[in-house]
Specification:
It comes from Nocardioides soli. Keywords: DNA-binding, Phosphoprotein, Two-component regulatory system. GO terms for molecular function: phosphorelay response regulator activity; transcription cis-regulatory region binding. This is DNA-binding response OmpR family regulator. There is one protein chain. The chain is α+β, with helices and mostly antiparallel strands and about 100 residues long. It is built from three helices and six strands; from the N terminus they run E-E-E-E-H-H-H-E-E. It has one domain: Arc Repressor Mutant, subunit A. The longest helix has 14 residues. Helix 1 crosses helix 3.
C-alpha cells in the first residue's frame, strides 16, 4: 500500500482511495498515479512516464499524458489551476507532492 496526502493506492489489487472513498481509475490512469506516487516528491519526466506507463520510448506529443492527467486530477479532487497533489514542473515533468503547500485561507 502506498499513501501520500490522503491518497491510498494498492498496487496488488489495483485499487485507489481518497480518504475513505474508493476511486475508479482506468488501467492507464492507475499506472500514471502509481508511477508518480512511487516517486512522490521527485520530478518524473514525461519521457519516463511514456516509458513506464505507456511502455514506449516513441511519442510525438505529450497530449496523451495531459489528457490522462486531467482525468486523474478530476478523480482525485486536484484542481489543475491550483494543484496540490500533482504539479507540473515546466520543462521537467510532473511531481506528486508529499505535502499540500497551498496557503491557508
Amino acid at each position: 500500500m502506498i499513501e501520500v496526502q490522503g491518497i491510498r493506492l494498492d498496487p496488488d489489487e489495483r485499487r485507489a482511495w481518497r480518504g475513505d472513498q474508493e476511486i475508479t481509475l482506468s488501467r492507464k490512469e492507475f499506472d500514471l498515479v502509481h508511477c508518480l506516487m512511487r516517486h512522490a516528491g521527485t520530478i518524473v519526466s514525461r519521457a519516463e512516464l511514456m516509458e513506464e506507463v505507456w511502455e514506449t520510448t516513441f511519442w510525438t506529443s505529450s497530449k496523451t499524458i495531459d489528457v490522462h492527467l486531467g482525468w486523474v486530477r478530476r478523480k482525485l479532487g486536484d484542481d489543475a489551476r491550483e494543484p496540490f497533489l500533482i504539479t507540473t514542473i515546466r520543462g521537467q515533468g510532473l511531481r506528486f507532492e508529499t505535502q499540500d503547500h497551498r496557503q491557508p485561507l
